């Protein structure tokens, strides 16, 4: 028996074949004498394309692993504009070096700087730099970032995996992850945990390509990779696998069952998605609907404003696929951490509080109307609802309702079919909206609370600033009070209230949600069945407001 000891990153026990993956990338030549203008233009094009890819990656991460994972890639995209990072590239370009050499040197310089820091978290950010730089280099060299194909599921082994490589993994073909380097605080480790992939890191150089093709057990809890286990160890591992299978079978047994507590209180479990491609996972996990369809994926992936037809086809695809289950489409939420070049938004000192989301839509009504027309047209093919983000004023909602009424009248005049009863709701993610919830509730058909931004604005705590750590706390009493205010206002007006932020999947918070009377929880697809199991084993009458630390 051979046991290689690393660090446990993500729980779970799997048995399979080790597949050692090594990425290939040629070193850039240090030769000078290149045309400065040409190399600068090549680098700019690669950076721009890398930025677009990373924003698309953010939407993929959002669908597979939630908002926190998406923010990682949005931060990566912002790094491409960092003046210190790009300044190093510019100095090499000005010296006559190639775009490849400039990008490579900048990446290496920042990697070394971060890797030498005392703080473990900052040392792990060196992998993020490597990921971003590698993407630029691949674009400059015309290298396709495709994963190798496997005939059957494997334990994926590597020196390390970057966050973008991890989030793109086919969960059906990767049983687990084992790496020589990395740590429990790396973004790759965090993604593995969120995606439910058992993982072990820090196995060191003794774990190398000589193990390629060998069968092994990987134990995420203990950080062990075990080859040729002795009979006693094999029996213990087999028993633990059995318990794990029973847990998964319990979750799978939830398919087709109601989201209802032991004493009959219903809490619908829905999904957050980022593109039509995510609908398969929604259906496979038997969600009751789509509680948040982030429409900005169309804008992030486009080189210019997406037209009405393009948007209509995407919304129709999702509405039809859900076969009568409700799809809540959130209107455009561009701005802040999601920048799109062709919008030509002015650079802001504090974009999280600047021109974003509904503010852009109301300032650019032609863009807003195009999207609304597409959504209303798609409503003829399924049950669609519209949700407006980043609301802070009553007049904003009134203006949205007025424009919706005008769009409906336009479609009637043109003889275009649509559902006359599309529900209209708002996201409560600003303290202003929460404090005005009693005035807002009578205007709309539903509330949905975006706890990520609500926490950020309530605590004056930038959710993208990794150094804030414990200060960004979605369980803070002020956040819980905000949820209660909004829920009370919704119920007083006779409308349902949901939660679509990361907090919705926190099983420890379920008693609080039941105490508040939350009607819907919208989570990533893989969180649906575990959450349903938790709901079905809970008793709502035992969940009282005494649970709230207010």
Folded structure, characterized:
The protein has helices at 36-65, 67-79, 83-94, 99-115, 120-141, 163-167, 187-195, 231-252, 279-284, 297-300, 308-321, 358-363, 365-378, 394-414, 431-435, 437-440, 451-459, 477-492, 510-516, 528-536, and strands at residues 2-5, 7-10, 13-20, 154-158, 174-179, 199-201, 215-219, 224-227, 268-273, 290-294, 327-330, 384-388, 423-428, 446-449, 497-499, 520-523. With 550 residues, the protein is of the alpha/beta class. The strands form two sheets. The chain has an eight-stranded mixed β-sheet. Helix 6 links the parallel strand 4 and strand 5 (174-179). Helix 1 packs across helix 5 and helix 13 packs across helix 14 (394-414). It is globular and about 65 Å long.
Please, how many domains?
A: 3
Mean pLDDT: 87
What is Rg? 25 Å
Q: What is the helix fraction of residues, given as a range? A: 40-55%
Please provide the count of β strands: 16
Q: What gross morphology would you assign?
A: globular
């Amino acid at each position: 028996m051979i046991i290689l000891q690393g660090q446990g990153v993500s729980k779970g026990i799997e048995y399979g074949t080790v597949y050692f993956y090594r990425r290939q990338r040629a070193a850039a030549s240090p030769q000078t004498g290149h045309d400065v203008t040409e190399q600068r233009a090549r680098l700019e094009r690669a950076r721009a394309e890398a930025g677009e890819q990373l924003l698309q990656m953010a939407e993929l991460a959002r669908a597979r692993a939630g908002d926190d994972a998406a923010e990682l890639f949005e931060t990566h995209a912002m790094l491409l504009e960092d003046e210190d990072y790009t300044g190093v590239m510019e100095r090499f370009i000005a010296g006559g070096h190639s775009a490849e050499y400039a990008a490579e040197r900048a990446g290496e310089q920042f990697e070394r700087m971060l890797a030498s820091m005392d703080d473990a978290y900052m040392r792990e950010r060196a992998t993020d730099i490597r990921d971003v730089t590698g993407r630029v280099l691949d674009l400059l060299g015309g290298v396709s970032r495709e994963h190798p194909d496997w005939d059957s599921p494997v334990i994926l082994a590597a020196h390390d995996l970057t966050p973008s490589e991890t989030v793109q993994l086919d969960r059906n073909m990767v049983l687990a992850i084992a790496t020589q380097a990395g740590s429990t605080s790396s973004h790759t480790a965090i993604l593995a945990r969120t995606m439910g992939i058992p993982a072990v890191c820090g196995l060191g150089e003794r774990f190398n390509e000589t193990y390629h093709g060998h069968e092994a057990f990987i134990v995420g809890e203990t950080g062990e990779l075990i080859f040729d286990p002795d009979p006693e160890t094999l029996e213990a591992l087999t028993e633990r696998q059995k318990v794990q299978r029973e847990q998964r079978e319990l979750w799978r047994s939830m398919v087709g069952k109601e989201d209802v507590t032991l004493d009959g209180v219903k809490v619908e479990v829905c999904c957050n998605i980022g593109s039509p491609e995510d609908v398969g996972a929604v259906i496979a996990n038997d969600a009751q609907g789509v509680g948040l369809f982030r429409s900005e994926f169309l804008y992030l992936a486009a080189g210019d404003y997406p037209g009405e037809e393009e948007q209509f086809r995407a919304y129709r695809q999702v509405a039809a696929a859900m076969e009568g289950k409700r799809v809540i489409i959130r209107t455009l939420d561009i701005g802040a951490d999601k920048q799109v070049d062709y919008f030509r938004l002015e650079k802001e000192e504090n974009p999280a509080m600047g021109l974003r989301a509904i503010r852009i839509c109301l300032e650019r009504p032609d863009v807003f109307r195009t999207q609304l027309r597409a959504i209303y047209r798609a409503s003829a093919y399924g049950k669609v609802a519209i949700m407006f983000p980043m609301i802070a004023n009553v007049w904003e909602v009134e203006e949205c309702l007025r424009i919706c009424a005008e769009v409906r009248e336009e479609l009637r005049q043109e003889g275009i079919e649509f559902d006359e009863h599309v529900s209209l709701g708002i996201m409560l993610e600003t303290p202003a909206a929460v404090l005005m919830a009693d005035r807002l509730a009578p205007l709309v058909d539903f509330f949905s609370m975006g706890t990520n931004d609500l926490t950020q604005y309530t605590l004056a705590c930038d959710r993208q600033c990794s150094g804030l750590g414990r200060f960004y706390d979605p369980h803070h009493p002020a956040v819980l009070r905000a949820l209660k205010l909004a829920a009370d206002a919704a119920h007083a007006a006779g409308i349902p209230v949901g939660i679509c932020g990361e907090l919705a999947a926190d099983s420890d918070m379920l008693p609080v949600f039941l105490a508040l009377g939350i009607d819907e929880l919208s989570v990533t697809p893989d969180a649906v069945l575990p959450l349903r199991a938790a709901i079905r084993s809970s008793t709502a009458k035992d969940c009282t407001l005494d649970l709230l630390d207010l």
